[in-house]
Amino acid sequence: MIRVKICGITNLDDLKAAIHYGAYAVGFVFEPSSPRYVGDCADLLDLLRSVPPLVARVAVYAQLPRDDEHIWQEVDAVQYVQVGETVHLPSRVQRILSVRLRTEEDVKAALALQPEVDALLVDAYHPHRMGGTGERADWRLARLLREEAQKPLILAGGLTPENVREAIRQVAPYAVDVSSGVESAPGKKDHEKIKEFIANVQQCTSGS
């Protein structure tokens, strides 16, 4: 079964749609430069607590801060890009390292970081932005990392309802992650696109 994470959730309506159509996980972005930033939302804790059991809540950062314990008590995993100082998380909270692959050397570097994390997420490389760019990841390098990695690989980066089946065919990831590919505008999801994206992933699982 290929699992689906709908990332960049900013409001309750989009959260309900993602869950209704079968998302395995939902992501909330805590990077202030992102149009999907939720750190200033007045009802943030209510949003996080609206996620039902058996759907994973993922807090997404550029680099893990040291002072977000109140958030970590409400999520199941943290996803981050930059490896900085060691941050002690609750033992139940899993770590997802986002890696941006340009060369096979980047694959080797990602493999070396496996002992520190529970999963690797492959995103598209961008010189300034940490994710949500809509640009496609390098599927060849993602496949190479998946074949050599001991930890689960999550594929992100430019996925859409139109290309996700081919991405799964080429990479065979543990899970796929989409944000801008199911949006009508940055931070606002298109519910029909969510439905189509998840249905296409499920078709891959069923062999259709």
Features:
208 residues; TIM Barrel; 8-stranded parallel beta barrel; two-stranded antiparallel ribbon; 20% strand; globular
Would you give an account of this structure?
With 208 residues, the chain is α/β, with parallel strands linked by helices. It has a single domain, classed as Alpha-Beta Barrel (TIM Barrel). The chain is 30% helix and 20% strand. It contains seven helices and ten strands. It has helices at residues 12-20, 44-49, 69-72, 104-112, 139-148, 164-171, 191-206; strands at residues 3-6, 25-29, 56-60, 77-80, 94-100, 119-123, 153-155, 175-178, 183-185, 188-189. The chain has an eight-stranded parallel β-barrel with strand order 1-2-3-4-5-6-7-8, surrounded by four helices. The longest helix is centred in the C-terminal third of the chain and has 16 residues, at 191-206. 42% of the residues are buried. The mean pLDDT is 92.
Strand order of the largest sheet: 1-2-3-4-5-6-7-8
Structural class, by secondary structure, is: alpha/beta
Which value, in Å, is the CA radius of gyration? 16 Å
CATH H-level superfamily title: Aldolase class I
What percent of the residues sit in helical stretches (DSSP H or I)?
25-40%
CATH architecture: Alpha-Beta Barrel
Beta-strand portion reads 15-25%
Count of β-strands: 10
CATH class assignment: Alpha Beta
Number of domains: 1
CATH topology: TIM Barrel
Q: Distance between the terminal alpha carbons, to the nearest Å?
A: 13 Å
Individual helix count: 7
Major sheet details: 8 strands, parallel, barrel
Low-confidence stretches: none
Provide mean pLDDT, rounded.
92
Q: What's the multimeric state?
A: single chain
Order of helices and strands: EHEHEHEEHEHEHEEEH
> What is the general shape?
globular
